[in-house]
Amino acid sequence: MPESTESRHPIRVVAQRTGLSTPVLRAWERRYGVVTPRRSEGGQRLYSDDDIRRLQLLATAVDGGRSIGLIAELDLPQLEALIDEDRETPIHPIGDFVAPDVERVKTALDLIDQMRTDDLEQFFMRCAVELRPHELVEGLMVPLLQEIGRGWQAGRLGPSTEHIASVAIRRFLEWMSSTNQKDTNAPLALTGTPAGQRHEFGALLAGVVAAYEGWRVRFMGPDLPASEIARAADKLGARMVALSAVHPRLDATGVQEVLEIRRRLPLSVKVVIGGAGADAHRERWRDAGIVSPPSFSDFRDSLRVPDDAN
After folding, report:
1. What is the pTM assigned to this prediction?
2. How far apart are the first and last CA of the chain?
3. CATH class of domain segment(s) 182-301
4. Domain range annotation of the chain
5. Average model confidence (pLDDT) for the chain?
6. 3-91 topology per CATH
7. Please, is 268 exposed, middle or buried when counting C-beta atoms within 10 Å of its C-beta (0-12, 13-18, 19+)?
8. Residue-level pLDDT at 4
9. Could you tell me which residues come within 8 angstroms of residue 252 by beta carbon, excluding any fewer than 6 positions away?
10. Which of 11, 96, 285, 301 is the most buried (most CB within 10 A)?
């Protein structure tokens, strides 16, 4: 049997060679039939060299802006031609802005309203396969969380509904962050919220974005004092601390907490803060050497992995 068609690679090897997580690999197989791996006598998936080559091309095309659903049936020459075309004329979001994905947000809200949490998590998994990372975060998760907040404030969502939705969303975001951390030598980013800030989703979303941009991510949790955040960054050797302040708006004490984190850490450790609760203090952040991106798109642009990271 020629080497290219011999099924001999387990899924963990395929994940390493393609850059695709194992959940995404399984989802592409199940939903789109992109490859059909054989099974060992013990039931383990085994892939051929041709399978890996096909998956590498599909991953490259998706990274270039293509939807997996529209290219799954293309053969290898067609995929290669499409990739060459995209390299000559790259696809970029207009103004690097991602508009809210109204239909997907509505679907998620309907599932939340009906408390169909299993269906909600399956929906999120499908979106993780179909959308590019920044589309998932900026087009779906950010507007969805905003709508959940409005619904809570207006009384349209009861406490039990909001709590159940929050648990499902938190679990999905933690999975998104952890499943895309492949390089154990990548620089470490810590995410969390400063003292007085209990809304953690902004920090979890920042972790997802950072993981897709090549960082290892560890979520510290919400409402931590400056001394503990700085201690964790020092002990773990973090290269970045990414903080979220959504609500309430940082008061003078909150601002001093963030400034104290900057003072306690060496300048080689990047300190980033974002969210509606931090926006009013952008001049203070700039003067202190703290990065304050106005959007997740800007945060993404600030996440270039240092050249000396490895």
Report:
1. 0.67
2. 39
3. alpha beta
4. 3-91, 96-178, 182-301
5. 85
6. Multidrug-efflux Transporter Regulator; Chain: A; Domain 2 (1.10.1660)
7. exposed
8. 61
9. none
10. 285
Name the CA dihedral angle for 118, 119, 121, 125, rounded to a multiple of 10 degrees.
140
pLDDT digit string (tens) for 104-153? 999 999 999 999 999 999 999 888 877 877 788 888 998 898 888 878 76
Token pair 């998590």 is found at 121
Task: Encode the chain in three state secondary structure.
Answer: CCHHHCCCECHHHHHHHHCCCHHHHHHHHHHHCCCCCEECCCCCEEECHHHHHHHHHHHHHHHCCCCHHHHCCCCHHHHHHHHHHHHHCCCCCHHHCCCCCHHHHHHHHHHHHCCCHHHHHHHHHHHHHHCCHHHHHHHHHHHHHHHHHHHHHHCCCCHHHHHHHHHHHHHHHHHHHHHCCCCCCCCEEEEEEECCCCCCHHHHHHHHHHHHCCCEEEEEEEEECHHHHHHHHHHHCCCEEEEECCCCCCCHHHHHHHHHHHHHCCCCCEEEEECCCCHHHHHHHHHHCCECCCCHHHHHHCCCCCCCCC
**CA distances (Å), 277 to each of 66, 197, 220, 248, 262, in order?**
35, 9, 19, 6, 18
